[in-house]
Description:
The protein is mostly helical. The chain has helices spanning 14-29, 31-38, 45-62, 87-106, 137-149, 157-171; strands spanning 71-76, 79-84, 113-118.
Amino acid sequence: xxxxxxxxxxxxxxxxxxxxxxxxxxxxxxxxxxxxxxxxxxxxxxxxxxxxxxxxxxxxxxxxxxxxxxxxxxxxxxxxxxxxxxxxxxxxxxxxxxxxxxxxxxxxxxxxxxxxxxxxxxxxxxxxxxxxxxxxxxxxxxxxxxxxxxxxxxxxxxxxxxxxxxxxxxxxx
Length: 173
């Protein structure tokens, strides 16, 4: 019998082969899961992570519209600790806690209390691209005429610069 290749081993129990395939698929699909399983100090965290992921999914089912921005932090002695990104969502979620707790208890989770923590996440502000109007030839001609006819005085320097920038940007297109 070749022990090097477990999949080629014929077992009298088909469920045994199925379980081997499932466990192999689970460990291959998640590099993080494999890392946690192989690390002696971190492997005890794996059941907690799996439990929190399951709770996250259940809470999303129980409150689908509201729970997309929330996260399950922990479950300690029957107390579920949730995180929200701001106080407004926390306030709305607080009103829905009895419904969420009833849903979780109905699904087999032993939840005695739910606590909410507001944890503002650091976000990187996205810069919105400047909206630029597409000018037709008639509008461009009018701006060129204005630039040429405008007196080159001290008061008109900023306006002339803006017109020049507008015309050069639109000539490139």
